[in-house]
Amino acid sequence: MPTLYHHPLCPHSRFIRLILAEYGIDATLIEERATERRPEFLALDPAGRTPVFVDDDRTVVPGASVIAEYIDEAYGAARNAQRLLPPDVKARVETRRLVDWFNVKFFDEVTNWLVTEKVYKRFAPQGGAPDMDLLRIARANIRPHMRYIGYLTQTRNWLAGERLTYADFAAAAHISCADYLGDAPWDEDEAAKHWYQRIKSRPAFRPLLADRAPGMTPGRFYAEMDF
């Protein structure tokens, strides 16, 4: 069985967990606190970042974007119409653009600050209290992203076009972290909220909704389908 080294509130790990679940690929989950810099984990990925995927043949695939491409190459073709990276070249470009938008831009502006300040600092050797200024910035930054999601879903069936793609799961992974921490502004855009309700209701999402961080109660809407 493949193995995924992950952290429950790492949005990039959640992105890969959603893809694996959507494709019905069972994987052993090993929780990794990257700040501990375990030699065994660094041997898999010298960058020391989650997620890292190890396939049945011991192929080691580090990083969310690389893992997503690997899963498409190794498993995607058999999915036909359910393939999450579309076969059409233009659709693939748009899907990759939006995956990069959420895994890089959204992460840099929102989830990195929220998760680092509220979660990772709790376990880091040089932790400390959350920086409230950074949290305020992240909470302000998430609002235009929600409006952008709303704009996309008002003109398309899913974020990248008419079919469900990696783009939807990348966006949902990051928003789910903000939602767990009580920082998803569901009053910002009704179309974005409706899109999230649709993807949140998929069976692939259920394991994420069962996640609990030690000592942290999830936000009030986190596990609700209708909110």
Please render the helix and strand layout as text.
Blueprint (H helix, E strand, L loop, with lengths): L2 E4 L4 H13 L4 E4 L7 H6 L7 E3 L5 E3 L1 H12 L13 H35 L8 H24 L10 H15 L9 H11 L5 H4 L18
Parallel strand pairs: 1-2
Antiparallel strand pairs: 1-3, 3-4
Helix pairs in contact: 1-3, 1-6, 4-5, 4-6, 5-7
Protein name: Glutathione S-transferase family protein
Pfam family, one: GST_C
Subunit structure: Homodimer.
> Cα-atom Rg, whole angstroms?
17 Å
Number of strands: 4
Widest sheet, order of strands? 2-1-3-4
**What top-tier CATH class of the largest domain fits best?**
Mainly Alpha
The main pleated sheet reads as: 4 strands, mixed
Structural class: alpha+beta
Instruction: Please report the number of helical segments.
Output: 8
Strand content: 5-15%
Please tag this protein with its features.
single chain; 227 residues; alpha+beta; Glutaredoxin; Glutathione S-transferase Yfyf (Class Pi), Chain A, domain 2; four-stranded mixed beta sheet; 8 helices; 4 strands; 53% helix; Glutathione-S-Trfase_C-like; Glutathione_S-Trfase_N; GST_C; Glutathione S-transferase family protein
